Amino acid sequence: MTTDAEVARSIALEAAALLRNLCVAGNCAEADLGRRGDAEANALILDRLHAARPNDFILSEEAADNPERCAASRVWVVDPLDGTREFGERLDDWAVHIGLAVDGIPVAGAVALPATRQIFVTDDAPRTLPPLPARPRLVISRTRPHPIVRAVAEAIGADLMPMGSAGAKAMAVVEGRAEIYLHAGGQYEWDNCAPVAVALAAGFHASRIDGSPLVYNCRDPLLPDLLICRPEYAEVVLAATAEALASRDVVNGLGT
Asked: How far is residue 124's CA from residue 175's CA, in Å, rounded to a whole number?
C-alpha cells in the first residue's frame, strides 16, 4: 500500500511540475500568473488527494472549508502555492505544501520547491548537517519582517536571511542553509503544516513561539506564530522570544 508520505511526495511533484510549466510559459501578467497558479495547483491537488485517500478530509487555502473536518482524525492541510507573490515575480522561493495531520499532529507531508527542483518529504533519510556556525542564521520575511523576530535576532547575535515563502524558509533550516526560522504576526495552518511535519521528521525543533505544541485541524485555522530550528538553538531562541514579548516597545510595534 502506498504510504501517506509517498502520496504527499507524488502529488507535490506533480503540482510542482504544473506550476513550473505555468511560470516559464511567460504568457500571462504577474497578477494573473499568481491567480492561475493558486487555482490550477489547487484543482490538481484536491483531485489527486480525493483519489488516493477518499475517506480523508482536506483543508486547503484555496478551497471552501468543510466544517465536518473538525471531527475527523485525518485531515490533509494544503497550500497549493505558498509564496504567490514570489511565484508571480518569478523568483525561486515559493513552494507546494502537502501535509497530513492525524488527531491534530503533523505526521506526514512534502514540501516542494519547484523553481529549484527540490522536494523534502517526511520519509527522507536524515541529512548530515554542517557544524554550527559562529553566528546563527535566521530566516526572515523579505517583505514583512516582524519586530519580535528582529529583536530576537539582535538578542542572540543572529545574521538575518530575507526569504519568501514559509516553505522555503523552513526548508532552508532543514537543508542546513540556516539554523532558525522564527515567525510571528500571522500564518494559517496551511502555511506551516507540511513544513513542520518535514522538520519534525528530520529531528528539528518545531513549536509555537511560547514553546507550546503546534496543533492542526482547529476550527479556526489561524496559527499565527512558529519556531523551527536546530535543537541546539531552541532553548535560547524561546528565552529571547519570551523576553521580546515582555518588552513594551516590541509589543507596541507588533504588525501583521
From this structure: 12
